[in-house]
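Figure 2 data, in text form.
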Amino acid sequence: MSLFQLRLQWQKIKKSGKPANVKIAYLSTFTINPLEPYLGITLEQSGLTSEGFISPYNQVIQECLTDSSITARFQPDIMVVWPSLEDLWAGQQLPMVDGLDSYVKEAVDMADAALEASRRWQSTLVYVLPAVSERRPLGVGDANNVTGVFAAATAVREELRRKLARKLGVLLVDAEEMVRHFGYANSYNEQLYFLARIPYTEEVFHAVGRSIAQLIVLSKSFPRKLIAVDADNTLWGGVVGEDGVDGIDLTDNGKGEAFKNFQNYLLELRRAGMLIAVCSKNAHEDVVEVFEKRREMRLKKEHIASWRVGWQPKSESLRQIAEELGLGLNSFVFIDDNPVEIAEVQAALPEVACIQMPTDPSTAIRVLQQSGALDRLPPTVEDLGRAAYYEQESKRREAANHTIAPEEYRAGLGISARLFAPEAADMARFTQLVNKTNQFNLNCRRRNESELMEICKDSTYIPLLCECKDRFGDYGIVGALIVKLEGSSAELDTFVLSCRVLGRGIEEAMLAATFERLADRGVSRLQAAVEQHPRNEPAREFFATIGCHTVDSLCEIANVEWPAYIACEDEVLVS
């Protein structure tokens, strides 16, 4: 579909009167109107209908400083802020011989105003890092100037990144990526800039709009957690069953080198929190022998979270991997060189993201990245420890196979838990648990980071996080709850627990700690209304055992004791 057709389609959507589920304010130093159709269409394709408001041209700081501005009155859910360096530096000489501080200050002041406004208005801030200015008085000599245009632009962009990256409720998009992709001639529209203050071509607005939309959807969705990868002609060249372990291609140049480079990329994804599984139609002993015998392999046996090597349909293998690891199939990426296998999985498991390994392995990383299936926001501490956790979990399962009773198994794990109030560094994980947990969730009530921050400041609420560990390793922060105080009683507003620790007594420990804290405040009665949602049966079953027999009704929770086999690291309880 052409860009013109996309704009026409957006006009039809706006005229249809379809109710919007997200309100977006657009603020910029230039005329940003061309961005709205492309952002709106991409969101619509993802199931989000947006209503847009174009804030006054070049009035970003003024609109953000007051809650009576027309942008504030629009009450946006999302603020898109996009400055250009040319506009920020208007009225100044271009960087050439002076220091960089004044050039950086203009951009930082605008970012500060936008960040503060997004917090007051409880809006998600999408900040577009400005592209490097092409106006360079020294031309090719600018690269040799430590106070030149490129140096100043780099200083501005990195200071903005330092200030905004990883902030709660902030997403970053980089306009420089689009300009670099299209090139100067295809990115800038000088005539329109002087006529209407529109500096970029439709292609750039389209690319930025798509990136913003994808980032917004990514922030609201479940990230992919596992890559299930085929073996023959995917991890190495050739077919091990025919070529033999020594005959497969893992040479130091050509295709063999490309396969090893692909394995290195998989290891980088693992380091960023993803799991790797092998899903291959092969003789199991042949595949394992490659991992054991071929030293050139970058992937090692210890890097693999699950193995399914045999002759059953690959969709069935993926189901078994999901069951073994306790993951949803919608968190899987499947990579295979065979289009027939890809088609079989797509038909049987449409929730799995499938990527066909290209015939030329040198293009594999580009194909993966362009698919978008592996796009994700920076990982939390828990994400980074996911691979290590599953290694530990394998040892836990082995220990379970050697014990007689569940009680003996749990006692042998040596579990310890700590309940604590969230701090600023914990908010990303707090938000992740509240918004991503489905199975053990009291009511599937979702809240964004700003809302949770406000709850943490409100004395009528008690928010708690739970972290635990055992003799095999650290689980990290696995649970979260929120209690609302109402005089002499209290209501359990939120209760979520990661499925990876279900059945180990952590849920009882969390409630025991809650009752202790309530007792300190003279509150002895705790109530909860358990809601029914498609996947929260484990939570419903647990709460039914402690008094919440009726769904959607406020019930009193029976007092819960701290499990004797769990060591307590909660200072309140210990004292």
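Caption note: Confidence is low (pLDDT under 50) at residues 571-575.
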